[in-house]
Amino acid sequence: MSKSDKYTTIHYHKYLELDALLSLQKPRSTAAGETAHDETLFIIMHQVYELWFKQILTELDSVLLLFREERVREDNMHTVLLRLRRITTIIDLLIEQIRVMETMTPLDFLDFRDYLFPASGFQSVQFRMVEATLGLREEDRITYHGKSYKIVFTEEQQARLHDIETGGSLFELIEKWLERTPFLRFGDFDFLAAYQEAVDRMIGHEQAQISNSQLSDSMKEMRSRMVGDSSTYFKHVLDREEHERMVASGEARLSYDATIAALLINLYRDQPILNIPFNLLTELLNIDEGLTTWRYRHAQMVMRMIGNKIGTGGSSGHDYLARTAEQHKIFRDLHNISSLLIPRSSLPDLPPAVERGLGFHFRNT
């Protein structure tokens, strides 16, 4: 199409290719002469999901492109944030759409379930592309009958998934972006040293209050465990070697420097220059939580429809889906930042030069 064609007219019907779109629902039960009314709903629901997966991938690809710049421009961050929020909104819609599917009863589903074998949502290559683009690694996935999740796809589809997995996921690009945070050391200010002093003061103050309280010994012990000390919640951020041990053992994934940067952003979120980075990290958590909720609701719907039966694709059905909801979380490290937060009243004061740096449009040169 040439540029001049944008000035020609087009009909709504043609623009949306509705003849092609509305001809894509082909119930197998109808072809077999045993029309099952709800099979059309089932097909449309899953086609709509695939369309939304396509849009999520469109948004993710654009975000990855912006993050692949050697220096991520601050004026691009608002665009990134808006596109991540769009993904969150789409996921919310995916969750809500399950309610439409649940208007179909288990008996309605049985009218055409046998026609689906061996098709399964597990075979959605676009959803696997979404997971891989976000940063879900193969070693972190629940295996498919003890084999790679890719075995259900064609060679071409497997190659696409491999390219995504090796091309730099959003998780990896976010990690590199965090590692470049300029305010971890700023002149004479060492954020980590100041944070450790603040943690020690906070814990010492709270432990003293507990000891001097009128609580019973058992309650004092419980409160002390809740407060923790520098060898519990805070150990891995106060000790690089401990953090690297946790990464090696699979207890953590985000690098040490990226974790410290995410902590600084969360603690000083009210500073103008850290506001968008904080909201960006929050949106990644929203996406992770949304996908977890979607997986869980999907699992509940499957339990409602088929109970404990094996899925049409050969998986364990509800059990498999429920386990993925728990295990297939991508940004778990960002969730865990909450255990490292300290009250605003305990935050170390920022030197004036750092406060000025955080208060205006800062750009690395």
UniProtKB/TrEMBL annotation:
Substrate binds at R113, T312. It comes from the Bacteria. One of its GO terms (molecular function) is L-tryptophan 2,3-dioxygenase activity. This is Tryptophan 2,3-dioxygenase. Keywords: Dioxygenase, Heme, Iron, Metal-binding, Oxidoreductase, Tryptophan catabolism. Binds 1 heme group per subunit. Pathway: Amino-acid degradation; L-tryptophan degradation via kynurenine pathway; L-kynurenine from L-tryptophan: step 1/2. GO terms for biological process: L-tryptophan catabolic process to acetyl-CoA; L-tryptophan catabolic process to kynurenine. Its cofactor is heme. Belongs to the tryptophan 2,3-dioxygenase family. The gene is kynA. SUPFAM superfamilies: Indolic compounds 2,3-dioxygenase-like (SSF140959). Its EC number is 1.13.11.11. It catalyses: L-tryptophan + O2 = N-formyl-L-kynurenine. Heme binds at H298. Coiled coil: none annotated. It comes from Neolewinella aquimaris. InterPro entries: Trp/Indoleamine_2_3_dOase-like (IPR037217), Trp_2_3_dOase (IPR004981).
